[in-house]
């Protein structure tokens, strides 16, 4: 099969098996932009490639969160929004709020300076925060983690802090710095859902539950196909607060407050590309590329948008012979 990319975007064809075990070729298209102070977008001089694997923050740490998610995967049911960066204060503060707004949807976070658990009068409590000017918005700074004997693991965030067998085990240990404003962590008894804006690895909840049942029956009857109860939401990488069931569209507004000294405000651009497929016998199909992944880097004032289109590889008299990514008129 031949592949031609006639656009200025990054593009990559990837052979995969669909949910029914059929061979498909997923064409992934990605555009990278720089955001001006006025919110205008211009193509980046160093566009990001199509990432073929997850990029860990700490590659040598098996509990590390992700810096960037892989772009490889089947079509997504909706759009993921991932924001990569720090909470940035103009002067030292002990606590501040940040927010990501997509259309009318708000995803707020409350960010504290470094703080630890201490032995309080009635409970093991979260101590006061130290001043900060910058705190990374990473899952390592949110509630989660695991006990030393691994008998307690927060599957939604094994990289975090605060999970333990006993409250006394946390005395003197780091406490969560990132939380939802309406669900504060004040004692060791608080076990609120982990918060953040980063991508979720495939072995963390809720993605792991969407894989399906991979037991002995699957091994005997379907492997290497996906389990019969596989949920397409497994492909969704965003934190639940930034996962959209409907595809985002060009013109949808995105604002990020508190992750750079100047607010970041933009409107999503078009992913101005269509994928053309040619089969044996001259039959042709073409499809537009939807926006299914948005990655925002506020400090770098950088935006990535990506989408994918899948065509059956075919067999017998209908075999996929060529794919072309063309710019929209």
UniProtKB/TrEMBL annotation:
Residues 54-63 have a biased composition (Basic and acidic residues). It holds the Pfam family DUF2169. It comes from the Bacteria. Residues 20-306 form the DUF2169 domain. Residues 41-63 are annotated as: Disordered. InterPro entries: DUF2169. This is DUF2169 domain-containing protein. It comes from Polyangium jinanense.
